[in-house]
């Protein structure tokens, strides 16, 4: 009898100590660094192999159809003939894509690539059905624009340098050409 | 008769009673009516505002503190650092459709949230925030406080019974049995404290802990067993982890509030957090010296002591509430039959032992 | 006088659970508080994965295999590929075998951590989920570096794995395993000797081997009942016969011993991960895949069965081919399907709170049971 009571008291104390230990362990967690990323302000680090949205290099595509054949979701990629009669991948349906990467891993020319883009929410589901031809045209237009801008700025820099060097030679020349004044403004 | 219940040192309330009775015909009838009506109304408004702010704060604090222990942030975007989060949740609940089952008992279904809420809000006027002004300083204030804290159990039963839902009934029955079983150890612990103090008034109990020793003169040292018993029973009365089986989410029952939606549902949880605050304040007043300073003397000058007392009370209460939230993050739930076993086989004998210790201490250190 | 008949109440633990076990319907007959009958109803998560295999090429089906049990995707890929590779009569290179075992054992650890968090949440401890998921998050980050995705990896291919694991990632894995024990101590301190937890799980839901074997239970549930059956030792596949590990067994068969065994399995798996990582660090020159055309896979006509010791038990993939480029029939034998059925025996005589504890300890994952 006595032994039983004694055991009970020992069990009780052991139990109380371990409850106290678990409370103490949880309390110590309050001083550790938070694990949450405050999302729009802090973004996670994306590794290199990350599978995000697909992207097509329209020129390299030969319309072989391997991507369509190997896609598990079956209605994501559509190959159609464009106006020149050449078969190309024209439609990528991001709303049906499962981001497995089968298409990009098996593309023979390397035209279909995986980007790191994961912020794909839109207000209208139709915005997720991408037209590859239009995207490649917009991209080409942007590239020519940036190229033209960089060319113009190169010209301006050259002309300004000539002006400065001519100023040093001819300091009484106050005749400043019109476009330099506009640039300074 | 009322005069005998009021304590003598309550200047404001005594002045009010004098004006109310208008014994010496000093003021006109109209002025008397206005004062008679205004004083209770002002007290009522202060209590309601205080209770609402306290609930909003406590719900927000619980989420932030639980997140603190689980390596997260908690709500920190709505308002400055998330303070308005509960306000947003309350607005959402207000705008919800109040759908209820057709087969419910209409009168009881409607009454139940109010029975759960009103006594708890009323009990706020009994809390001793400082020595000079307590809203309602009556002689047996502890008894009234515990009585008011026990009425919500009836509301819980009505809620479960009138829902006409078997899950609600099971949840309600469990809640009631748990609440009733844990009333006994709490009552006996309070009895032990009253033995040591000689009075049922909370203010007297606090004053009896004041001494030059400061921290070491409080009741938690001679009554350490009573302190632990009271704390554990309080957790059970409040349906908090580890005793929250009646509102457990991994069970199929959603508890007594299964069929409630919208603002009525909010009122149940409003009252749960208010009761949490109430019992924490009671715990602090009984065992940790209420509004007394742990240094023995007050830091601020004479005229500002009442502010310092409020500060000490709120600080100690928030420490206890912090500890209650920490327990929620750390411990799993006790099984229901173990809960009752724990109450009757462990807590009740401990509280009776504590009562004996209290009587012995009073006998040897001079009776009151 | 008529005898007072005790009315039994039938209660439906509906498909929508607050806890995270998936969609299962349990129709439970209660006599007061005790359960007298418990019938599980499956099928709420049926996705037709076996039928989908019949319309798809072998390589087209491979990403869907990861999704049969999304918590243990690597094991199902291995099961399917093992069957196909048996019919193709090829053997994958040594490096590929080590990489497969490495990723599978890491997957075992991550799935057990998720189980631990959810089991403790069912018992009421709301802090433990976050600690377990925090550890699991580190493993998922490692998977993201290796394969490109946190959960549906699509990393194994016919003939091996997609690409090799660089030394940086292998060193990251070694860092993880070395720091794991210290971080796991938080969970162990909180739970293992906690009297509330012990009281909720000891002696509960005792599964003896006499009940378990007719229900075809395998995995940890069976090993906790005394039978030491682990298909990594019985029918060794890949390089498990070269690795050094023990198979822990317990004899009580209650919830607590299943919990203890899974914790031991986590530690043994991390030891296996260390062994594989050390081997890979010193053998980086080997090939990781045979040069096979993934799209033109045409195994010979026939039947193959593969055995894989997955997280929850034995996974078998029966594959019937007829020489064409699409399989004729793929049948998955998944362990959770049988574990759900043994619930009808284990639940009797317990209360609903205990039912949740037993259900949690069996580690049932519904997508696996429903396919």
Our count of helices of chain C gives 15
Which structural class should the secondary elements of chain B be placed in?
A: mainly alpha
The helix fraction of chain C, in percent, is 40-55%
The number of domains of chain B: 1
Question: What is the CATH topology descriptor of chain C?
Answer: Cytochrome-c3 Hydrogenase, chain B
User: Percent of residues of chain C in beta strands?
Assistant: 5-15%
- Nearest-angstrom radius of gyration of chain C? 21 Å
Compressed to H and E, one letter per element, the order of chain C equals EEEHHHHHEEHHHHHHEEEHHHH
> What do the pLDDT scores of chain B average to?
83
Helix content of chain B: 55-70%
Regions with little confidence, pLDDT below 50 for 5+ residues of chain B: none
Biggest interface reads:
A-C, 28 and 32 residues
Number of strands of chain C: 8
**SS-derived structural category of chain C:** alpha+beta
Distance between the termini of chain B: 25 Å
CATH architectural name of chain C: Orthogonal Bundle
Strand content of chain B: under 5%
What's the layout of helices and strands?
The complex is a heterotrimer of chains A (185), B (368) and C (371).
Chain A lengths: L1 H27 L25 E3 L9 H5 L6 E5 L5 E7 L8 H4 L6 E3 L14 E3 H38 L8 H7 L1
Antiparallel strand pairs in A: 1-4, 2-3, 3-5
Chain B lengths: L1 H4 L5 H11 L7 H41 L15 H10 L11 H18 L17 H10 L1 H11 L3 H32 L4 H6 L16 H14 L25 H25 L17 H26 L5 H29 L4
Chain C lengths: L8 E5 L11 E7 L2 E8 L7 H6 L3 H8 L7 H16 L5 H29 L5 H20 L8 E2 L2 E2 L5 H25 L3 H7 L7 H4 L7 H4 L7 H4 L20 H28 L19 E8 L4 E8 L7 E5 L1 H7 L1 H4 L5 H10 L4 H5 L1
Antiparallel strand pairs in C: 1-2, 2-3, 4-5, 6-7, 7-8
Helix pairs in contact in C: 3-4, 4-5, 4-11, 4-14, 5-6, 6-11
């Amino acid at each position: 009898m006595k032994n039983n009571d004694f055991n009970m008291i020992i069990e009780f104390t052991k139990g109380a100590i371990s409850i106290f230990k678990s409370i103490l362990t949880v309390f110590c967690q309050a001083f550790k660094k938070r694990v949450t990323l405050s999302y729009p302000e802090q973004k996670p680090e994306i590794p290199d192999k990350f599978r995000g949205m697909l992207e097509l290099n329209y020129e390299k595509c030969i319309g072989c159809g391997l991507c369509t054949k190997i896609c598990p979701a079956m209605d994501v990629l559509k190959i159609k003939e464009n106006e020149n009669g050449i078969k190309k991948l024209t439609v990528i349906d991001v709303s049906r894509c499962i981001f497995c990467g089968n298409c990009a891993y098996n593309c023979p020319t390397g035209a279909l690539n995986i980007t790191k883009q994961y912020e794909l929410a839109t207000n209208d589901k139709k915005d997720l059905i991408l037209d590859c031809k239009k995207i490649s045209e917009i991209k080409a237009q942007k590239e020519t624009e940036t190229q033209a801008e960089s060319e113009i700025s190169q010209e301006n820099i050259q002309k300004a340098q000539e002006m400065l060097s001519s100023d040093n030679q001819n300091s009484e020349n106050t005749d400043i050409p019109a476009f330099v004044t506009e640039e300074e403004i | 008769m009322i005069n005998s219940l009021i304590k003598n040192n309550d200047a404001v309330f005594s002045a009010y009673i004098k004006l109310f009775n208008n014994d010496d015909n000093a003021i006109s009838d109209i002025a008397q009516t206005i004062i008679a009506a205004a004083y209770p109304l002002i007290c009522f408004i202060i209590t309601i505002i205080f209770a609402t702010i306290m609930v909003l704060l406590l719900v927000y604090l619980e989420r932030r503190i639980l997140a603190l222990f689980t390596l997260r942030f908690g709500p920190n975007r709505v308002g400055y650092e998330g303070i308005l989060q509960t306000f947003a949740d309350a607005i959402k609940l207000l705008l919800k459709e109040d759908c209820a089952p057709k087969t419910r008992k209409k009168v009881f279904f409607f009454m139940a949230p109010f029975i759960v809420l009103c006594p708890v809000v009323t009990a706020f006027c009994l809390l001793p925030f400082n020595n000079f002004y307590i809203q309602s300083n009556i002689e047996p204030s502890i008894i009234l406080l515990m009585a008011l804290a026990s009425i919500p159990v009836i509301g819980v039963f009505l809620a479960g019974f009138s829902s006409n839902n078997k899950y609600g009934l099971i949840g309600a029955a469990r809640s009631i049995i748990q609440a009733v079983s844990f009333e006994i150890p709490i009552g006996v612990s309070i009895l032990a404290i009253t033995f040591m103090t000689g009075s049922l008034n909370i203010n007297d109990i606090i004053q009896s802990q004041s001494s030059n020793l400061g921290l070491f003169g409080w009741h938690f040292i001679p009554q350490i067993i009573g302190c632990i018993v009271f704390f554990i029973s309080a957790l059970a009365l409040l349906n908090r982890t580890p005793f929250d089986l009646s509102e457990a989410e991994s069970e199929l029952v959603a508890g007594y509030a299964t069929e409630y939606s919208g603002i009525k549902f909010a009122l149940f949880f409003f009252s749960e957090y208010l009761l949490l605050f109430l019992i924490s304040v009671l715990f602090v007043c009984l065992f940790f010296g209420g509004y007394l300073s742990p240094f023995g003397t007050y830091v601020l000058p004479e005229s500002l002591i009442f502010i310092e007392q409020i500060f000490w009370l709120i600080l100690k209460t928030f420490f206890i509430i912090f500890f209650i939230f920490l327990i929620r993050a750390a411990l799993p739930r006790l099984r229901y039959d173990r809960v009752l076993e724990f109450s009757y086989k462990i807590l009740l004998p401990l509280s009776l032992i504590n009562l004996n210790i209290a009587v012995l201490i009073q006998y040897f250190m001079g009776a009151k | 006088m008529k005898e007072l008949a005790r009315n039994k109440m039938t209660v439906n633990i509906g498909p929508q659970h607050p806890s995270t076990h998936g969609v299962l319907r349990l129709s439970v007959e209660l006599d007061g508080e005790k359960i007298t009958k418990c019938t599980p109803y499956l099928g709420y998560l049926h996705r037709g994965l076996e039928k989908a295999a019949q319309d798809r090429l072998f390589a087209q089906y491979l990403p869907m295999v990861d999704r049969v049990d999304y918590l243990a995707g690597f094991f199902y890929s291995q099961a399917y590929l093992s069957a196909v590779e048996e019919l193709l009569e090829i053997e994958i290179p040594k490096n590929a075998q080590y990489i497969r075992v490495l990723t599978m054992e890491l997957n075992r650890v991550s799935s057990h951590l998720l189980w631990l968090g959810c089991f403790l949440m069912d018992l009421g401890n709301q802090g433990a989920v976050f600690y377990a998921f925090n550890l699991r998050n580190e493993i998922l980050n490692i998977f993201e570096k290796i394969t490109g995705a946190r959960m549906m990896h699509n990393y194994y291919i016919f003939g091996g794995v997609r690409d090799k694991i660089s030394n940086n990632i292998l060193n990251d894995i070694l860092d993880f395993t070395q720091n794991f024990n210290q971080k796991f101590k938080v969970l162990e301190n909180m739970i293992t000797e906690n009297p509330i937890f012990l009281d909720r799980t000891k002696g509960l839901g005792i599964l003896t081997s006499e009940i378990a074997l007719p229900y075809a239970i395998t995995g940890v549930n069976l090993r906790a009942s005394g039978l030491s059956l682990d298909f990594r030792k019985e029918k060794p596949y890949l390089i498990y016969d070269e690795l050094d590990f023990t198979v822990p067994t317990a004899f009580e068969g209650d919830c607590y011993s299943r919990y203890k065994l899974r914790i031991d399995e986590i530690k043994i798996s991390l030891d296996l991960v260390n062994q594989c990582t050390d081997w890979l660090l010193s053998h980086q020159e080997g090939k990781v895949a045979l040069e096979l055309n993934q799209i033109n896979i045409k195994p010979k006509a026939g039947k193959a069965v593969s055995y894989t010791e997955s997280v929850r038990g034995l996974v078998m993939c029966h594959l019937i081919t007829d020489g064409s480029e699409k399989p004729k029939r793929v049948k998955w034998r998944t362990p959770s399907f049988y574990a759900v059925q043994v619930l009808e025996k284990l639940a009797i005589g317990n209360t609903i709170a205990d039912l949740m504890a037993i259900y949690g300890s069996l580690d049932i994952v519904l997508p696996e049971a429903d396919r």
